[in-house]
Amino acid sequence: MDWHEFFNDLEKWMEASNIMIQRHSFNSEEYWKWLVETIGVIEERYNKHPLVVMFLTDILIFQDKQYKQMEE
Q: What domain of life does the native source organism fall in (predicted)?
């Protein structure tokens, strides 16, 4: 497992996430569709390594919590 490559990809994904939020807004259907699809691509790229899946799941959980806080 190339952890350096994974974390570089994750950093690029986070930068892209910020751009998507600027373009569509955090609570838009476009952003959430993009988020789920691209997280899935990263998961597949690293052969669903259990630790990769845990990192990506935590990102989804964090984003979901942020969304729910916005809705309050």
A: Bacteria
